[in-house]
């Protein structure tokens, strides 16, 4: 297994996190620390090389984790490796996460969340509001204080409690 690449940013409270990747899982852990830590975990034959080409940067409290644009054909995506993204971020942060194939999982309190995956599950503990979409996968949200908009083409949607408008579509 390849070693992970870690980047740490000093942030002042909740951040705006943007994550985009083609293949791989995104794991978010919201806590009380004032720092943001991004860990890239390579998987497979060429995962380490892919991880080195990621863009991981912060401008103030805006943090971006962006996968490189692949030049290979669409059908070879994921066959040569992938990179999982793990982020420890301040509680109440806003998240915009997109993956072509992979799960997005979050623990702790987040603010406004937008998460999209072509194929994978979306699982969140507690959010302010959420716009969640999976082409094929389950969506699970334990609690939201605001509005929830969740759609999956094939999969289940489970919501514990919602504090605002619920718009849920499955199938």
Can you walk through the features of this model?
- By secondary structure, the protein is mostly beta strands.
- Helices cover 4% and strands 62% of the residues.
- The chain has one helix and 16 strands.
- The protein has one helix at residues 47-52; strands spanning 5-10, 16-23, 26-31, 35-43, 55-59, 62-66, 82-90, 94-101, 104-109, 112-119, 122-127, 129-136, 139-144, 148-152, 157-162, 166-170.
- A hairpin with a 2-residue loop joins strand 5 (55-59) and strand 6 (62-66).
- The chain is globular, with a radius of gyration of 16 Å.
- Largest sheet, described in full? 8 strands, mixed
Strand line-up in the sheet with most strands: 1-4-7-3-9-11-13-15
Structural class, please?
mainly beta
Structural Rg:
16 Å
How far is it from the N-terminal to the C-terminal residue, by CA?
A: 37 Å
Number of helices: 1
Beta strand count: 16
The coarse silhouette is globular
Strand content: over 45%
Would you list the SSEs in sequence order as H and E? EEEEHEEEEEEEEEEEE
> Helicity range of the residues?
under 10%
